[in-house]
Specification:
Blueprint (H helix, E strand, L loop, with lengths): L14 H12 L5 H10 L23 H13 L4
Length: 81
């Protein structure tokens, strides 16, 4: 049951709020995938994904550096990192 608990940091901002902040301050559109990748790089715990691919071949696009910087800025603004 502990794995499903949301930490205080994770409950501060939704993906939509992060996306809106990045658009408002950097005029960049970011996807949930990019936000999740940056959170993972920062060591923020993620919940288990229940929408898993059927095959093991999972090629995903990587977050560009300018978008990663903008997302990190939003995470700092919301005091997640």
């Amino acid at each position: 049951m502990e794995e499903l608990d949301v930490t205080a940091a994770e409950s501060k901002a939704t993906y939509n709020e992060i996306r809106d902040y990045v658009w408002e301050h950097h005029q960049l559109k970011v996807s949930n995938l990019y936000i999740a990748q940056v959170k993972e790089k920062c060591g923020i715990k993620k919940r288990e994904n229940y929408n898993k691919p059927k095959s093991n071949y999972n090629r995903q696009p990587r977050c560009p550096s300018e978008k990663e910087t903008a997302i990190r800025d939003a995470l700092k603004f919301y005091k997640i990192i």
